[in-house]
Structure formats: C-alpha cells, structure tokens
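Predict the 3D structure for this chain.
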Amino acid sequence: MRKNENRILNQDLVIPEETQRKIEAAYDIVRARNRAAQDGRKKISCPRRVWKPSAAVVLAAAMILICGLGVAAAVGHFTKQVEETDSTASYTFEVNYELKPVEVTAVPEYLPEDMTVADGGKYGSGKEDGRNITVWAMNMADIDYYCRTMDFTGVEKVEKTTIQGMEAHLITYQDAEKHRKSKDIYLFNPEDGYVLWVWGDYAVSMDELAKVAEGLTITVTENPELAYMTEEEKTEEARLEKEAQEAWEAAVDRGVAPEDITAVGETLDALYLTGASYTVEEAAFYDSLYEVPGYNPEGVCDREELEAWLNEDGTHKPYLRSTLDENAQIVEEKEMGVKFLAVTATVRQEKAYDPEWDGTPFDAVLVRLEENEDGRLVPAPERYAAVPSEDYDLQMDGRCFYLNQTADTMNDPQYFWRHMEAGDSQTYTMVFAVDEDLAENQEENQNLVLIFNGTGNDPENPRYSALW
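Done. Predicted structure below.
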C-alpha cells in the first residue's frame, strides 16, 4: 500500500547485501516485539523514530536491540557470567581472542507445516498471525562486537536443558498471552565458537520452537576474512555511533518553534522527491464516523479492522491502552474511548515526478508535541499502544485509515497514492482514530500536528502542519 515509503525514509542509506539480511531479520523481530512494547527486555527509545545514520550505526543498533540472550559457562572460544533474579537475567561474555572466529550457518530441517522459507533465516505463514520463526547463527566476531553484555527484564522462566549436545536456554516472559510476547531458545557452543538464536513469535509454541532447534543442520567453516575488530576499530565505531546518536537526539530535543509550524490554510512546499505541496484546510472531531461529511465506507483502508471496532451508530468501541515511557516501559493501562478526526487537505503536484517515482502520497501521520523549557515543541516522550491481545490496529501508529474516494481512484491498489500530472491539485479528506483524552480541548492545546507522507520529517528540519 505504501511501497514508496522506504525510499522516503532510507534514500541515503546503502548497505551490503549480507549486512542488510541480518538487519532485516533483526528488525522483523524488533517490530514483532514492539507490537507489544511491554516486552521491554532492553531499555530502548521509541523504535519508530525516523533517521538516516551510517550503515555501521544502523547495524549496531539492530544487533544491540536483539541481543537479549543468555550464555552458558564454558571453556573454548568464550566464557560467561550470569546474574538472575525473579524477573531479570543478565549475561556477559569473555571472548578468547587466541582462537579465530569461524563462520556458522544453521538451517531448519523441521518447520511447522504452515510455514514457508523466507530470506535471511526467516520463516513464517506469510500472514499477520504471529506464526513466525527466525534463526540467527552468531559467530564470535558478532558476539564480541554486538553482544558482550546482555540484559533481560520481564522474564518468567529460563529453562536450562540440552539440545543437539549443546547447553540451551529456553526463555519465556511474563504476561505472554496478554501482551503476545515472543519466545527464545539459545544454543551455546563455546568449543566450536558460536551461539544459535531461535526466535518464535507469540503464536509459536515452545514445543514447536524446540523441535526447530532440535532439527537444525549446523555447518561450521573457516573464513580467512573473518576477524575480530581491533580495540582501535571498536573505539572508532563507538565514537561514530555515539556522535550520530547524540546529533540525532540533540535535533529531536531542539524541536521546532511554534511559529515554524505550517498554519492552517498555508502551504507546506514539500517538493522533495514527490514534487508535491500540502495545505491543511480544516479539521474537526466527531463522535460517530457516520457524522463525517461525505463519509463513504469505500474509502476505508481496512474495512474488516474498522468494523470490528464500530458500534451500530458509528461510534468507536473502547479499547485497553498501555502508556509507555521513553524507555518503552509500561506505566499505566486503562480503557480508552476513541473519537474520529476528519482533516481536509489540498495536495498540489508542483512538478513532474522524478523518473524513479510513480505517484503522490496523500496520507499523513498524527504526532503529539509538547512544549519544552525553551518554549519550543518536541515530540512527547511517552507513547500509547493497544494491549496486543486487543487486536487493535486501527490507529496504525497515528496514520489515517480513511481517504475519501472518487470514481477514478476507488479501489486503487496503492490506496493512499494517486498519480498526478504537474499542476494538478486535489482537495480530499482523511480520517484518523484519536484517543478521547488526546482529543479534548485540541483547539486550545493544539498539541496534535500532521506529518504528510509526501514531505518527510527530519529532526534537523521538522515539517509539521497545524490542524487548528
């Protein structure tokens, strides 16, 4: 539906194929875990930030996010230290640099019958049903750079057993059903120098995951090009990563002056790759979706999702919401009502598309801002997410779920994208689902703003549009 978004967000990023494979596997798992957010085994910032660091920084961030694992004490390529409490587990590696790291692969001979093979050690049903498995074979160079220290929180149980002659840890988490938490199995081989991580999404049973681990075909080979990073290289990588992160955080913390937010009725000259500009004409909240002027059910992106949460009169059913702090830790759960926000906007295609482009994005994302001590506006540090067992995705990370249709665009497979010629313009309506407490007094507070997909939004150059 939004096939061009990755171009917008990552256009400056060039990553080698093998590195990209590992990153994608890592992010698949991070995305799955963050559907619940409560998984919380690493203290991380909101994973949905948009930024463009170096390839090394991206890889390091991905690996650090996923390296919540335990390691068995042993001699050989590594040893470990472990500290456990009722709900946490902390592990550290000591690497034996006298032994050269080896290359290792692990391929499942057994998969549950509903799963198919995908790239990068990923396996699944091809549906959004929690039936996904990922296998990652980590050599000691990976461990040395990315996973020397690892911490878990929210642990329910660490079962220690033996699989394929290796010590294995089977890890489950608290409130797994409610929060749809994943499961992990780690196989540790200090003699040959590797750790295998077998990850199962929330609908995969531990018995199934264990059968996958028991049926892995493991291949260890020497690789003359594989080597540990020197301390100087690690220091330099850490410096670059720290500088990039600090620069990004400084830009986010700097925020935007209120007068620099594009006002209602004023045009945001995005141009960008899309060559489009956007103007918010008006915005209003409604208790019932059926009250939105010109509402047509044909304009709903996912009718099945919407219908599950609509009462007969078009009002929204309440849902159970978690409030998460800046470290993705749950601070509150409460039942929350929802209102509908209709935004009328005009898009104008100012110039012809670049050759690689094929349409104009009409959709947008709602963002909550708050005033900092300098009187500037910055993204609110806490975020909200439905408790995963609610099966509630209508708010789509702040995205609109509706776009009013015309005869020539109805049932367009791109949905929120339209082909426009240079000079064309169109006025249209988007609808967002918004929690009741965020909708209150919006015309006075004005802490909700829009980011149009076609404009992008860089912390160095925030591109927000006001709604009132």
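The two ends are 29 Å apart (CA to CA).
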